[in-house]
Amino acid sequence: LKPERGSTPGLPAQASPSDMEAISGLAAGVESSLGVGANFAQVLTWLVIFSLGYLVLQLLQGLSKGGLTGRRSRGSAVLLFGQPGAGKTALFFRLRDQEEVQSVSSLKALRDKISIQELEGIGPLDVVDCPGHQRMKGKAEDLIKEARCIVYLVDSEDKQRLKDVAEHLYELMTNPEVLELHMPILLAFNKIDLPSARTEKFIVDEIEREIEMMRSSRGATLEGQDQADSYLGVDGEKFKLLEHAPCPVEICRISVKQAALGPVFDFLRQQFS
Predict the structure, then answer these.
(1) In sequence order, which residues have a C-beta less than 8 Å from that of residue 269 and are 6 or more positions away?
(2) Which helix (DSSP H) or strand (DSSP E) does residue 212 occupy?
(3) pLDDT tens digits along 67-126
(4) Which of 1, 38, 56, 207 sits at 20 to 30 Å (Cα–Cα) from 89?
């Protein structure tokens, strides 16, 4: 293409006179500062302008993409949640030391980098045993921003605790961090080695029943945005854990005592591969 009359070869024809004057001034500055010829200074000036324009464009595209997705990246920790006595601490030591440990409920989080033999090529994993006591739940949930996933242990034998489990799961599934990070949760029904262990269906049904009652009671006491932010499920339908949870939820049956942890390893492999 031939340049328009009065334009400088190599410069865009659509540049306004004021733009051209400014660019010519920059080129003159380059020429005097570097002691190079006029043509070379002009080419160098345009290369710098194009490079800066490209960087600005990439920056704007990155900001636009981040604004559209609105989702941060998850952390790298594995959080062990659950009620006191569900087996969180026993699982922590089973993963770390490959042995059964008689543990008691703790008011202090346990945290360690653990290389899990069954997860070859993955790790070590940052595993956190979060205390299950009610007064410690707030501190434990502060760790969610650091998490890659949550393994939530449930005592399959303790029917009375299922209400507490449902309440905690309700809090987790309406937690802004869990929602924003789309946090995967594995519900691991522990102690299946015991004859009195409840079935998977029984536990899920009980949790869904308790959450359904909480939906009704909490919906009646909250209004407007508070109600929307703390509401689980689909309006007009009974709550279904696997269908209506706002984040990925899987369920499995395990025995920490007997080291029957295959589903836990599968879940962790899926999250960290």
Answers:
(1) 119, 122
(2) helix 200-221
(3) 444 457 899 999 999 999 999 999 999 999 988 877 666 678 899 999 998 998 897 999
(4) 207
Q: What are phi and psi of 102, to 5 degrees?
A: -80, 110
- List the structure tokens of 96: 């770390």
What pTM value is reported for the model? 0.70
What are the structure tokens assigned to 116, written together? 């899990």
DSSP of 146-199: GEEEEEEEEETT-GGGHHHHHHHHHHHHT-HHHHHHT--EEEEEE-TTSTTPPP
The predicted-structure confidence for 225-249, as pLDDT tens digits, reads as follows: 454 456 788 888 999 999 999 999 9
CA 104/CA 140 separation, integer angstroms:
18
Retrieve residue 55's tokens.
């960087």
- The sign of the CA dihedral 175, 216, 244, 234 is negative
pLDDT tens digits, one per residue of 32-44: 777 778 888 778 7
